[in-house]
Each structure stands twice: as structure tokens, then as C-alpha cells.
Amino acid sequence: MPPASPATHPHYDRLIAAARALPPLRVAVVHPANAVSLEAALASAALGLIAPTLVGPRAKIEAAAREANADLSNIPIVDAPHSHAAADAAVTMALRGEVDALMKGSLHTDELMGAVVRREGGLRTSRRISHCFVMDIPGHSQPLIISDAAINIAPTLDEKVDIVQNAIDLAHALLMPAVRVAILSATETVNTKVPSTLDAAALCKMADRGQITGAQLDGPLAMDNAIDPEAARIKGIVSPVAGRANVLIVPSLDAGNMLAKSLSFLGGAYAAGIVLGTRAPVILTSRADSEPARLASCAVASMLAKAGRERLIKAVG
């Protein structure tokens, strides 16, 4: 990822400042068995964003602490023999109300999410589980929420309804003043040969009928006329969303993953990742994430959990 000055990511600065004003979020850090994942949790704790409980093999966690030259004397550790057991233990802690959120450590995402999505004893709610990236792009006037780029591979129309609503709820939890959702496709016109354009049109009509609430929707929109006012003007698209979208709903995981990583690795963007539609937020981080992105992921979870506790949204809880 290209190096970027913290000054080029003011949206994350404001997000982290807002979360620091809240009580620390009680987080089960799942299998932080290497220095990178452990340092991410400890840095968030040092800023007062989270109060971590480390869940995993005690010997490996302590070895990671020695490698990172970190002091764990005041941080609780729940000993679990391996990564699968750590994921199960963390989910149980969330169900018991002992923690407010989960944070991925050095285990694979599939291991953690397997425990989260389990029908018996998991963290499912009535909502479809989905993932959002909250992206801070240098020079862009507002943060962008992108969904779903990590969980739902080829979502159906019904699944996209929950994906959209989860993203809208997240935008409200982050106190975005206006939520403008672009349903992305390769073109801005409805084409029966391009199924994603049909889904986009249906989602927008569902919003008109109150089946999706809390935002203005438009689609299908191509990426350029979703975020660039001049591109929207040239194409003759007149809507409150075109050129001004701050939530981007992609047609598939492939498209979303490539979009998010292109913004990160070519555009210097930072991407904070969060899972919604669960009883507690799940913070997903990557080994390639910058420290500000890891801190922002914790900040997002803190604000999401607060909105859930206050019954302002239904994307968690």
C-alpha cells in the first residue's frame, strides 16, 4: 500500500476522535498469536477505544507479546488450545454479554466467521450477515462505505435488501448527515442482459415503497457517475445520489473486493472492515492493514455497538 500521511485521512481522524469519547468497547480478540495482530489490539486499547480480552493459546499469545515487547500484565487472557476453540469461546462470551464485539486476530477469516454464522450457538440475527468497508480516500470529500466485498459471494435480490439496509444502518451509526446509496453496475441504464441492473432498479423501487429505509437510493449507476458530479452531469443523470454517493453497493463479492483493494493499493485509501447483521459487531482486519485502518475498525465497531444499544439501528443486536 502506498505510504500516506495521517493528515491525508481526516475522516478517520474524526471517526477515532468520536469513538474515544465513548467508553472503551469490551472486545474479545480472537487468536492474537502473532505480533501484528496483538499490536493492533494493544494500540486500540492504548487509545481507549477498546478493553481487550485475548482469547487463544496462552503460550503463543505470550510469545507474541515478547516479540512485540508488549506488557500483558493488565490484560485478561482466556486460554484456548487452538484457533477454532478460540473462535468458539469468543462467540460464547458475546452471547453471554461478557464482551461487546469480536476482533479477528491471526486466524483465517473463515475460521472466525464459521463460529459466528453457526445456526446453533452463533451470532446470527434475522438480518443477512454482511460486511462493510469504511474507506477514507485521500482527497475525497467524504468517507465511502462499500458493501459487500468480503462475505456474500453472489447475493440474491432478497439478500441485497439486507446488505443495503445494513450499510445504511452503519452510515447512521457513524453519524453521516445524509445517506446516499448508489447501487453499482457496469452501466447506468437498465438492461435485461445485465442482471445487476435489474436488481438495482428493484432495490430502488423497494426503497420508494418503504421496504428499505433511512437513505436515498439510486441505481443502476456506474462507478464514475455514482461518485463524480461531472460524470453524472455529462450522462444527464439527475438525482440526489448521482455524483454524491457515500454508500456503494456492489453486485458481487468479486466486484467489491477488487474495488476496495484498488482504492487501497492504487489510491492510498485506508479500509476499516466490520461485519453486520450479527448480535455483536465483528471487526475484520487484514495483515496488510495500516495501523490507522485497524484503529478505525475498532472505532467503527464502538459507534456501531452504541447505536445498537440505543436501538437506533437493527444491524447489530
Description:
The chain is α/β, with parallel strands linked by helices and 317 residues long. The chain is 42% helix and 17% strand. A hairpin with a 7-residue loop joins strand 5 (130-136) and strand 6.
Brief summary:
This protein has helices at residues 10-20, 35-46, 58-68, 83-95, 109-117, 157-173, 195-208, 223-227, 229-234, 253-267, 291-309, and strands spanning 25-30, 50-56, 77-79, 101-104, 130-136, 144-147, 180-184, 216-221, 247-249, 270-276, 282-283. By secondary structure, it is an alpha/beta fold. The chain has an 11-stranded mixed beta sheet, sandwiched between helices.
Which structural traits does this protein have?
eleven-stranded mixed beta sheet; single chain; 17% strand; 317 residues; disordered N terminus; alpha/beta
Give the number of DSSP strands.
11
Return Rg in Å.
Answer: 19 Å
* Main pleated-sheet profile: 11 strands, mixed
Alpha-beta content class: alpha/beta
What is the count of helical runs? 11
- Output the strand order for the largest sheet: 3-2-1-4-11-10-5-6-9-7-8
| Helix-strand string | HEHEHEHEHEEHEHEHHEHEEH
Mean pLDDT: 94
> What percentage of the residues does DSSP assign to strands (E)?
15-25%
